[in-house]
Recover the amino acids of this structure.
């Protein structure tokens, strides 16, 4: 089991920045992939950014060059730095931990944090 707690959401004007934080209850080095997802009203949850245990990162095309995922292994923290925010970035952002078991994968989710970008 992995508990995740997000923080850092809020209201920001277009062009502004926010940094989201995710605190994990166990060593993130033991977690195969840590990621940030978001879900806007009426839309499906989508991957925003992810970082694998080995350090490789991937981003949704819509946030490349604007968002950066990072981690602090000693603190079991994962961050999402969001710059040049746009109104279409408005959503609830969720932290995800994915653990690959022998025959299945396990996904753990935080409670989500609201990000609202005003135009």
């Amino acid at each position: 089991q992995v508990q995740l707690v997000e923080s850092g959401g809020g209201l920001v004007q277009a062009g502004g920045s926010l940094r989201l934080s995710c605190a994990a209850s166990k060593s993130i080095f033991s977690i195969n992939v840590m990621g940030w997802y978001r879900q806007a009203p009426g839309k499906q949850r989508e991957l925003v950014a992810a970082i694998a245990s080995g350090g490789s990162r991937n981003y949704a095309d819509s946030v490349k060059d604007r968002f950066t995922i990072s981690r602090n292994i000693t603190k079991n923290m994962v961050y999402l730095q969001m710059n040049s925010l746009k109104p279409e970035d408005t959503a609830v952002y969720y932290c995800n931990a994915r653990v690959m078991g022998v025959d299945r994968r396990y996904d753990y989710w935080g409670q989500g944090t609201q990000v609202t970008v005003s135009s």
